[in-house]
Amino acid sequence: MRFNARRLVLAIAIGVATASAFAQQTVTKPITAAANTATTRNVAKTMIDAPVPGNYVIDIAHSHALFFISHLGVSRFTGRFDDIKGAFVVGQRPSESLVNATIPVSSVNTKHQKLEDHLKSPDFFDASQFPNMAFESTRVSWNKNGEGVLSGNLTIHGITKPIDFALKVTGAGKGPRGDTRAGFEANATIKRSEFGMMYGLPRVVGDSVEIALSIEGVLQQ
């Protein structure tokens, strides 16, 4: 029997090429399926459960207002107000929605009693004369992804100014007792000097204040 090296090399080459093509086919299919699944999940994440139209009362236990402000130009201080009272209406169309809320200055929470007392003093909020902050909406809009604008009038320290919050409808669903709930977040930046709070400007305490609201409401039957 004569050994034919050329035929052996050719056979090996054909075998390798066939195996490579088969491997590519078997690997490509699951990768494509996984990619399609991931894309579907990403699209689903951008969609929200639409809030049920109706009148909602703000759930104080699950709502709060955060504020962020510069301290000495070296740090970003965070505080919060724990008591948000009010109501909102989810309209048949977003433009028919309304928000009305009141925040007692006394509910300020910084985890430091002396600082809280100072914030309530005439240097800042002057809680004895102006015990509440208030917001009343004038226009509401959001898209299918729940992103929009919440416009209205904000009253702090006895002074009322127009404001536009970046709005995010965070979702809707049932509570543990079967009640219907809806939630939203709203963010904006104000200058406290425009509301008559001048203490510590410009270096000790910053002028720009970031506000971040997280609101959850219960549908009233």
How would you describe what is shown here?
With 221 residues, this protein is α+β, with helices and mostly antiparallel strands. It has two helices and eleven strands. Strand 7 (132-142) and strand 8 (147-156) form a beta hairpin. The protein has helices at residues 5-46, 113-120; strands spanning 54-58, 64-71, 75-81, 85-90, 98-104, 108-109, 132-142, 147-156, 159-174, 180-191, 205-219. An eight-stranded antiparallel β-barrel has the order 1-4-5-7-8-9-10-11. The protein folds into two domains: 1-46; 54-219, Lipid/polyisoprenoid-binding, YceI-like (Lipocalin), CATH 2.40.128. Residues 1-31 and 37-45 have low confidence and may be disordered. It is elongated and about 45 Å long. 23% of the residues lie in helices and 45% in strands. The termini are far apart. The longest helix has 42 residues, at 5-46.
Which CATH class of the largest domain is shown?
Mainly Beta
SS content category:
alpha+beta
What would CATH call the homologous superfamily of the largest domain?
Lipid/polyisoprenoid-binding, YceI-like
CATH topology of the largest domain: Lipocalin
Estimate the global geometry from the Cα principal axes. elongated
Mean pLDDT level = 86
The percent range for strand residues is: 35-45%
Instruction: Work out the radius of gyration.
Output: 29 Å
Helix coverage percent: 10-25%
Order of helices and strands: HEEEEEEHEEEEE
Q: Please give the largest β-sheet.
A: 8 strands, antiparallel, barrel
The overall strand count is 11
The parts where pLDDT drops under 50 for at least 5 residues are: 1-31, 37-45
CATH architecture of the largest domain: Beta Barrel
Count of separate structural domains: 2
